[in-house]
Amino acid sequence: MKLRRSVRQFSNRPIPAEIIENCIKTAGTAPSGANMQPWHFYIISDQKTKKQIRIEAEQIEAEFYSKPANQKWVDDIKALGTNFSKPFLEDAPCLIAVFSKTYDISPDGTRIKHYYVKQSVGIAVGFLIAAIHNAHLACLTYTPASMDFLNKILNCPENERPFMLIPVGYPAENCQVPNIKRKTFRQITGFF
Q1: 151-187 burial, b for 16+ CB within 10 Å, e for fewer?
Q2: How much is the pTM?
Q3: Which residues are 97's β-sheet partners?
Q4: Digit-coded pLDDT (tens) for 20-31
């Protein structure tokens, strides 16, 4: 996992469907509060849908990047080479939209409450990223300032909320990966 890196430039090389399916099956094995499994994964490979997602995301991001209150954030990510332009949303062969579910609906129409939703979905995303890496694919965790547009584009039910958008694919041949350093074991660990 130490070799895993996020990328923003993807090859157009197609990904076999069974690889993506296996990655999502892996994510589905994550532990969750009361075993409610409060997640839903949408696999998006349709070019028209990816373009629509990019257009909506870039509008939101352009507004976010232009607000003076967000200047510190813009400065902090400058070294990563990112801005409001998100071509990876169209270039990646596959997008996985991860949604959280605060409740399910039983066959009789009653709501079934979910517990520890954010924590559970976060763990599932960790499993998903590890599975993508182990399948020799690259990905990027992308969370625009607002993701409500995904509900509309994907026609999601009201109990689902966008959690993260993950472009997946093989890295482009000349893919640029930021030269980052990780904190040391001692910096992230305490002993008692």
Answers
A1: bebbebeebbbbbbbbbbbbbbeeeeeeeeeeeeeee
A2: 0.92
A3: 42, 165
A4: 999 999 999 999
